[in-house]
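Technical annex, item 7. During the second reporting period the consortium partners agreed on a shared format for inverse folding records so that results from different sites could be compared directly. Each record opens with the tokenized structure and is followed by the designed sequence. A conforming record, contributed by the partner at site C, is shown below for reference.
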């Protein structure tokens, strides 16, 4: 154990009352990985473990005020951005993170829930590409989101390979893209990290049988945590995937829908009892 204070990570995300995804997932993940979470709420959702019923974006000024207030008080070691709720929110957050160019930024482009409920419209997708991706250290789309993000301004996007999507996303200004392969028709789940030189690393994971709520939020927050602990980016991505995989493997099904990852899997292991 060390007495060093935990690194501080600011997450911009929406509330998910199930505790599976959203800001609740981020706070759990960051805390479990030894960080202190600052949590700026962007929207409120109404959902259960089966599906999203509705959402209410918060006023962009309220989002900006929440962030400015804590940022003037505390230095942060990383930013993580999840569901945004509105174009105005994207613009407000883009203006804030622009004031902290040296702080690593993990952008999880939340376009839909794992079950396909839409959480961002076409204009918001364009705003993400224009205003936030150019400031992003690492973008973490799943393969469906990666294809969706390039579909408006890439020739032949429909037939593009994931590598071509990654190359296009990198050309819009982020430093790294990690495309996750849960939705691909492969035996194992293959997650691939790209930068401007091509593939940086590719990790294959046993495909778990359940359907999980909040796996993307967990992975992106875990990367923010490992970066905040000053790991190199490829190592940070590897470590974050291990944490996410263990959380999913320990997942539980508290309701009638999807499984929820157990971000505190290590605290509940039976070894010491
Ligand atoms: O997993 C993406 C996601 C992010 N944020 C919120 C969500 C979801 C998926 O349902 O509800 C608030």
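Designed sequence (site C submission):
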């Amino acid at each position: 154990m060390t007495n060093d204070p935990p690194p501080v990570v600011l997450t911009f995300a929406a509330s998910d009352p199930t505790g599976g995804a959203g800001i609740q997932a981020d706070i759990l993940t960051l805390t479990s990985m030894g960080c202190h979470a600052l949590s700026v709420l962007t929207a409120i959702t109404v959902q259960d473990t089966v599906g999203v019923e509705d959402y209410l974006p918060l006023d962009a000024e309220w989002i900006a005020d929440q962030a400015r207030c804590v940022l003037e008080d505390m230095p942060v070691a990383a930013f993580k951005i999840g569901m945004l709720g509105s174009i105005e929110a994207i613009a407000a957050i883009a203006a804030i993170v622009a004031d902290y160019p040296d702080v690593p930024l993990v952008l999880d482009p939340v376009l839909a829930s794992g079950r396909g409920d839409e959480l961002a419209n076409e204009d918001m997708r364009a705003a993400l590409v224009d205003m936030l991706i150019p400031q992003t250290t690492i973008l973490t789309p799943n393969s469906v989101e990666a294809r969706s993000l390039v579909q408006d301004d890439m020739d032949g996007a429909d037939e593009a390979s994931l590598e071509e999507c990654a190359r296009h996303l990198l050309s819009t200004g982020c430093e790294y893209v990690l495309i996750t392969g849960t939705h691909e028709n492969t035996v194992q789940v293959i997650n691939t990290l790209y930068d401007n030189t091509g593939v940086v690393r590719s990790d294959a994971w046993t495909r778990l049988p359940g359907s999980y709520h909040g796996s993307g939020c967990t992975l992106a927050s875990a990367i923010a945590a490992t970066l905040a602990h000053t790991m190199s980016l490829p190592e940070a991505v590897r470590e974050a995937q291990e944490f996410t995989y263990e959380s999913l493997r320990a997942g539980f099904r508290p309701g009638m829908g999807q499984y929820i990852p157990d971000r505190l899997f290590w605290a509940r292991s039976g070894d010491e009892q």
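The longest strand covers residues 36-47. The first helix runs from residue 22 to 32. All partners now use this format for quarterly exchanges.
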